[in-house]
Specification:
The structure holds two protein chains of two kinds. Chain A is of the alpha+beta class. Chain A is 50% helix and 10% strand. The longest helix of chain A has 30 residues. In chain A, 32% of the residues are buried. The chains are: A alpha+beta, B alpha/beta. At the A-B interface, helix 9 and helix 10 of A face helix 1 of B.
Chain lengths: 425, 122
């Protein structure tokens, strides 16, 4: 689960706590009040000197204030609290998680990393339990062993209990025991092979998807070398994460060849980043346009945009998070247009979505679902949903789609989509 | 005339051993190995007791049991269910579907003989 507490929101909250007006704070750091307003509403990304100046003016740690600072940790803390049994007393003070994080960053980091590790371990246990109860090969091997033992036990019982048995029968059961024990030897070897620890156990770190996304995060999801038709510039993570990145880069390359960066960036500005206008103008499929918009280079005046891709099970297969966004890899809020799109493939959806709370993050969402691959007579089409998110000024406003993180962490009452109770009361 | 037991099982050596001990105990033992036709065989053979393995090629013992109980002609025949998995779930399923008794492999010969006798009402 990934969330970044919006930098702008933190700045606004902290400024209001200190009783400062926008104009005062803007003057202190030498920017215009309207520019500060854009920053506070997540419309401009800041870094470097301005971020440091704002942090100093607000008496905050610049690292904590920056994009992707401790927001992730805050979310992991909340998620860890969500898994605490309801009987536990005292319950974690969820409302004061940010306070805890600010005052005890080291302890908070410990709790967050333990929360993540417990989640990973629980996933591993579930995987192993699933293997034991559903694995066909294991069931087969066990069945053969038990059948062999049953036959040998029955035949040897007959021999032992009937010393007067005639020679023909004796020879017959001895022969059966011999052949059954041969089979048993082979099936028990198969069982042992199955139960031996696999040579390469799945690592208990981040999943390959998370690793690949972190790598893309570090590149801001813009790959200049792939834009010009080159291979990915390494070093890439090893194993499945590297494979995921190579396959993403191959798709990126096809997208970039169809919609070259120069003309596409210019047209995007011209169209005010409206994906439908761009799709028409370039005669390009909408999913491709959404992917291209999310890979525009940072720092050239393009608005920050997130991108989520999900398969038909609703599991995220690719994520470019953006400030304030919180969508778990599986089991998210079904009210996101990303999931709605799966119900009507090829129908484009455009709406404003607001997370819970006053001043909570809002996004302009464009979503569509479409078959992922070329048609194949032999295989069912794999439909994939894709959603582009651009931050909006905090809300909510009338007409917003009211979405949430996950049910456990969502305070909305009377939500028709709720499937389990919230820990937030 | 000897009393009839129908043994529905697919492992030849288990069939041979069980046939031997039940025959010695005075039963006429018929055997059947194909799950798909097992229920019809019970109906035509009218055995006094059925010994039914849970894992069979063609059709699982649980499905056969369900068929037997659904047919008025075989709904009352006593069934001793044998399974290689002693899991609680299998036991519950067998009893819910109407197995008269449930025995897990590997069993002792004397247990099977005693079970068949019990089911026949001895």
């Amino acid at each position: 689960m990934i969330e970044r507490l919006p930098t702008g929101t933190r700045i606004r909250e902290r400024r209001q706590e200190r009783g400062l007006r926008q104009a005062e704070l803007a003057a202190t750091v030498g920017i215009s009040p309207s520019y500060l307003n854009l920053i506070e509403h997540g419309r401009r990304r800041i870094a470097g000197k301005l971020l440091a100046n704002l942090a100093r003016a607000l008496d905050l740690d610049p690292a904590a204030l920056g994009e992707g600072g401790d927001g992730g940790r805050l979310h992991v803390l909340r998620a860890a609290a969500a898994s605490v049994p309801e009987m536990l007393r005292p319950q974690p003070e969820i409302a004061r998680a940010q306070d805890f994080l600010d005052r005890f960053p080291g302890w908070a980091a410990l709790a967050a990393s333990q929360g993540r590790r417990i989640e990973a371990l629980e996933g591993r246990v579930a995987e192993l339990a699933g293997r034991l109860s559903h694995d066909h090969d294991l069931a087969q091997a066990l069945h053969q062993v038990i059948s062999g033992v049953t036959a040998i036990r029955a035949a040897s019982g007959i021999l032992a209990e009937n010393p007067d048995l005639d020679r023909d029968w004796q020879a017959r059961f001895l022969g059966n025991i011999r052949s059954d024990s041969e089979t048993l030897a082979e099936s028990s070897r198969a069982l042992v092979r199955f139960l031996e620890a696999p040579a390469r156990a799945a690592p208990l770190g981040p999943s390959p998807q998370e690793e690949a996304e972190r790598w893309l995060d570090s590149r801001d999801h813009h790959l200049p070398e792939v834009e010009v038709g080159g291979p990915l510039a390494g070093p890439l993570p090893e194993g499945p994460a590297g494979d995921l990145l190579r396959s993403w880069a191959a798709r990126y390359a096809r997208d970039a060849a169809a919609l070259p960066l120069g003309p596409f960036a210019a047209a995007s500005r011209e169209a005010d980043y409206d994906p439908a206008i761009l799709a028409r103008g370039f005669d390009a499929p909408l999913p491709r346009v959404l992917r291209r918009l999310a890979s525009l280079p940072p720092g050239q005046g393009h608005p920050p945009m997130g991108l989520l891709v999900a398969d038909a099970s609703g599991t995220l297969t690719h994520a470019k998070m953006t400030e304030g966004l919180a969508v778990p890899r599986a089991g998210g809020c079904p009210l996101w247009p990303l999931f709605e799109a799966l119900a009507q493939p090829s129908r484009p959806l455009r709406l404003k979505a607001a997370l819970p709370g006053q001043g909570a993050p809002r996004f302009l969402c464009h979503a569509v679902a479409a078959p992922r691959d070329a048609p194949d007579w032999e295989a069912p089409p794999l439909v994939e949903a894709i959603m582009l998110l651009a931050p909006l000024p905090p809300g909510p406003e009338a007409g917003d789609r009211l979405v949430g993180p996950t049910c456990r962490l969502c305070p909305r009452k009377d939500c028709l989509a709720r499937r389990e109770p919230s820990i937030l009361g | 005339m000897a009393r009839r037991v129908l043994l529905i099982e697919d492992e030849p050596n288990i069939i041979e051993a069980l046939s031997f001990i039940l025959t010695r105990d005075g039963w006429t033992v018929h055997t059947h190995s194909d799950g798909a036709t097992a229920a019809a065989r019970v109906k035509s053979g009218e055995p006094e007791v059925v010994v039914l393995d849970a894992m069979l090629p063609g059709r699982s013992g649980f499905d056969i049991l369900r068929d037997l109980r659904a047919d008025p002609a075989t709904a009352g025949v006593p069934v001793l269910m044998l399974t290689a998995r002693g899991q609680e779930r299998d036991r519950e399923l067998a009893l819910r579907l109407g197995a008269t008794e449930f025995m897990t492999k590997p069993f002792a010969n004397a247990e099977v003989v005693a079970g068949v006798r019990r089911l026949a009402g001895d």
